[in-house]
């Protein structure tokens, strides 16, 4: 045994919706997760940093630094890290193709799994406008769909300049509890449709804070969930198999903070 915790190694990890800078971010759980999970490549699938919250009032406790440091350290040690911005961290969207601290920024990518299957990886807020106007757009067809997405990008930029918050699909869907399930279903269907348009087998996204892996009309729809409530991530095994991991406990805290009191789990000893 070494003095480091035993980490599981994956080919790829997908993490989204951490919302660093908002009080709801579960940095303690994420830090613990990152301690136990290594990968050749880590995709940060948007809303990692909550730029809107930070603009309203600066909130950056040590836990946020720890997460950033942990990721940068992984990058230094050879993990390829790709940051795909979401709507909350869209300030990074102005820098596609750039690198900072060994982290690449990309708007969207097509990732090939170990078994050769291709997945579109993007945050997903691009489709909010389509979800809201699904029936109308379905009727009007492809050009209207493309136009709607373009208009959404412009509107978001205008709202940002006016200091207005981005229209958040997930927040809105939660308000409409009765309809939330329908809208989540609609979002999933539209994102799966985008994957089909890109001639890929699946899609991995975030945004709606609803982790799931399911088949939607022959497209593998995968959502990474979030680190605000559910504490979930998607892992790709060495053979290309995908797994949804829920990290709802903290395994490493006992050794690190040396909390007094009885310790019942002696499995992860740092010898
Ligand atoms: Mn989002």
* CATH architecture title: 4-Layer Sandwich
Which percent range describes the beta-strand content? 15-25%
Report helical residue fraction. Answer: 25-40%
CATH fourth-tier homologous superfamily: Metallo-dependent phosphatases
Task: From the alpha carbons, calculate the radius of gyration and give it in angstroms.
Answer: 19 Å
How would you describe the oligomerization state of the chains in this entry?
single chain
Bound molecules: manganese (II) ion
Tell me the number of structural domains: 1
3D shape: globular
Helix and strand sequence: EHEHHEEEEEHHHHHEEEEEH
**Residue-averaged pLDDT, rounded?**
83
At the fold tier of CATH, the topology name is: Purple Acid Phosphatase, chain A, domain 2
CATH C-level category:
Alpha Beta
Separate helix tally: 9
Strand order within the widest beta sheet:
4-5-3-2-1-11-12
Question: What would your notes on this structure say?
Answer:
The protein has 271 residues and is an alpha/beta fold. The chain has helices at 27-36, 51-56, 62-76, 128-132, 134-140, 142-161, 169-175, 177-197, 253-257; strands spanning 8-15, 37-44, 80-83, 99-100, 103-105, 109-112, 118-121, 202-205, 212-216, 219-223, 232-236, 242-246. It has one domain: Purple Acid Phosphatase, chain A, domain 2 (4-Layer Sandwich). It is built from nine helices and twelve strands. Helix 1 packs parallel to helix 3 (62-76). Bound molecules: manganese (II) ion. The site of manganese (II) ion has 8 residues, from loops.
């Amino acid at each position: 045994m070494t003095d480091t915790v035993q980490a599981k190694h994956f080919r790829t990890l997908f993490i989204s919706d951490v919302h660093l800078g908002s009080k709801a971010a579960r940095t303690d759980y994420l830090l613990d997760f990152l301690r136990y999970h290594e990968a050749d490549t880590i995709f940060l699938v948007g809303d990692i940093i909550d730029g809107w919250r930070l603009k309203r009032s600066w909130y950056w406790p040590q836990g946020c630094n720890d997460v950033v440091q942990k990721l940068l350290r992984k990058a230094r040690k050879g993990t390829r890290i790709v940051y795909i911005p979401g709507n909350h961290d869209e300030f990074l969207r102005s820098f596609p193709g750039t690198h900072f601290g060994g982290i690449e920024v990309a708007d969207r990518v097509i990732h090939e799994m170990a078994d050769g299957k291709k997945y579109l990886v993007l945050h997903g807020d691009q489709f909010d406008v389509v979800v809201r106007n699904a029936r109308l757009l379905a009727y009007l067809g492809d050009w209207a769909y493309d136009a709607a997405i373009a208009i959404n990008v412009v509107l978001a930029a205008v709202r940002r300049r006016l200091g207005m918050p981005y229209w958040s699909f997930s927040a809105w869907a939660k308000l409409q509890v009765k309809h939330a399930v329908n809208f989540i279903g609609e979002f999933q269907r539209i994102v799966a449709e985008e994957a089909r348009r890109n001639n890929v087998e699946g899609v991995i996204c975030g945004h709606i804070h609803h982790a799931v892996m399911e088949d939607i009309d022959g497209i593998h729809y995968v959502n990474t969930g979030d680190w605000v409530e559910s504490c979930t991530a998607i892992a790709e095994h060495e053979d290309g198999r995908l797994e949804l991991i829920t990290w709802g406990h903290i395994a490493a805290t006992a050794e690190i903070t040396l909390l007094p009191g009885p310790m019942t789990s002696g499995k992860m000893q740092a010898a």
